[in-house]
Amino acid sequence: MKFYEKFNLLMNLLNIPNNKLAKALSVDPSLISRWRSGSRDPVKNSTYIDLISQYLVTHANDKQCLYELIRIEPINSHEELVEALSEWLILDHVTDSSFVSNFLSHLTHNTSQQPMAFMSDIIEDKPSGKKLSVEVFHGNEGKRKGVIRFLSAVIMSSKPCELLLYSDESMNWLLEDNYFLAKWGMLLNQVIAKGHCIKIIHTIERHSNELIAAIDRWLPLYLTGSIEPYYYPNYQEALFKRTMFIAPGIGALTSSAIGDVESMEQLYYHDANMIALLQKEFDAYLHLCRPLMRIFTEQNITLFHELLYEFEMQDGDLTYISTSPPLTMLPYDSLCDALNASNLLPDKIEYYKNFYIKRKHAFHEHLKSNNRYDLIHLPESSISIANDEVCSPFAYTFLHEGLTIDKLLFLQQLENVKKILKTNKRYHISLAAHNLPSNILIYFKKEIGVIIYKADNPLIIFAINHPIMVNAFESYIEDLSDNLVKSDYDQHDVIQEINKWINAQNEMH
Which residues lie across from 430 on neighbouring strands? Predict the structure, then answer.
């Protein structure tokens, strides 16, 4: 790869705009554009290569992607990684000229050699392979028919299985026919409704919009909790493309293509041995991939509780966005009263008490060396909150048992918010000037990842640490803060605003 190819790949991979790097290097953005296009290279003996490497390493959320790209083992030293990246950027592939000498020498000394005598014996040995029953479909229209054949067979199967899906071919076969696109979605929904689940390897190459588009296209199915998405972390731009749709024990649809040219033949296999071999091929590739995100539903909510605790305990400034204060602001005794008044079984009550204690511990431990920024919204002060109304349901959806939290407990939460604001300078609260999404909670750590919790039915939680997605959420949070939070707020103003809201509520009763 030439310098401009490597440089452009890194800029896309790390999602760095030209103007930001240009500002850091004190150069015009047009120079960065010329470097990326290959119309101009930095002088190899100049300081630009080192400055570029320094900036890229500093702004890489996931250093692992750099290790994999330049093919080195992980190293602890920031300086060593900068040096390794600089060497990789300026190193061109140099062909050893001795190859030509050896090649010509072989031609010179072997021109009179005759074919081996036993070649005729080899020709007479004509092995025959196993004949399989295969259905063949042609072109993009054939691929659509083949997909319908494949998904229909899965839907008709009485035994649920795990579908294995991968394709890095052009998606024109799917996107060029709106009627089929709708039918594809309906068939996949039927597959999931029949109890099948899907393991998919997404193709993510140079551009971040490929990842965003893939997630957007599959999001309705992600909400079912039946999709397990993965991606291959290293950059690849293969000439030969491959599609494998496998339903173990049922059938498999495969095809191949060159570049973006549509594949000529789609092969649908019935043979159990062939399906098993294709599954092994898929599993071998899956072994090299990483989870694109972890998805949690009601069925595995306790696994999410474990992840959330680990997430909160990890170092890194945390941003929390919700319509109400976090669960840890509720007094322990009040939580116990609410749990005891519920219809929960005793072991569930004990579980949630312990869960609260762990979260409370994580909250205070995190604040010892990290900042926390909570963005919440209070209802208009002129609106009275009835005593029997669930005032802050969102903070309790982690319990997922429908506890009733009344006005008194909500006010207790706010009093705890004020107390921590006064005693811990690392804790920050912003009051949104407008409504936040009522069914969404977000936890964000720049170097760790993001958790998105959708509280209404169907309950679904996404845990994401892919750097492109984390960067997208960072931009979203910055935009949200700019649009919803008063820019001149400080923590004293926040406390005064909370007091004003509490007094307004008390005056109404």
Answer: 375
Residues 284 and 446: beta-carbon distance below 8 Å? no
Sheet holding 440-445, edge to edge: 294-296, 460-464, 449-454, 440-445, 318-321, 372-376, 427-431
In a domain, 175, yes or no: yes
User: HEC string of 67-131?
Assistant: HHHHCCCCCCCHHHHHHHHHHHHHCCCCCCCHHHHHHHHHHHHCCCCCCCCCHHHHHHCCCCCCC
Residue 346, in any domain of the structure: yes
DSSP category for residue 363:
H
Q: Cβ distance 140 to 173 under 8 Å?
A: yes
Same domain, 359 and 440: yes
Residue 122 lies in a domain: no
Question: 151 and 197, same structural domain?
Answer: yes
What sign does the CA torsion over 210, 211, 212, 215 have?
Answer: positive
User: What's the structural domain count of the chain?
Assistant: 3
Q: Which residue has the tokens 């072991």?
A: 347
User: Is the confidence at residue 327, as pLDDT, over 70?
Assistant: yes
Measured between alpha carbons, how far is residue 148 from residues 2, 241, 264, 265 in Å? 43, 21, 17, 15
Rounded Cα distance between 180 and 174, Å, is 7
Residue 210 is predicted with a pLDDT of 61
Segments forming the whole domain that contains residue 215: 134-291
pLDDT tens string 182-238: 999 999 999 999 999 999 998 865 455 666 666 777 888 888 889 999 988 776 667
pTM beyond 0.90: the answer is: no
Express each pLDDT in 395-454 by its tens digit: 444 555 555 566 777 888 889 999 999 999 999 988 887 777 777 889 999 878 999 998
Residue 483 lies in a domain: yes
Helices (H), 194-261: 208-222
Contact present, 209 and 267 (Cβ < 8 Å): no
* Cα separation values, 51 from 13, 256, 378, Å: 18, 42, 46
- Do residues 285 and 167 both lie within one domain? yes
Residue 484 banded pLDDT, cuts 50, 70, 90: low
CA 378 to CA 73: how far, in whole Å? 50
Cα–Cα dist 74/331, whole Å? 44
Q: Do 281 and 149 share a domain, yes or no?
A: yes
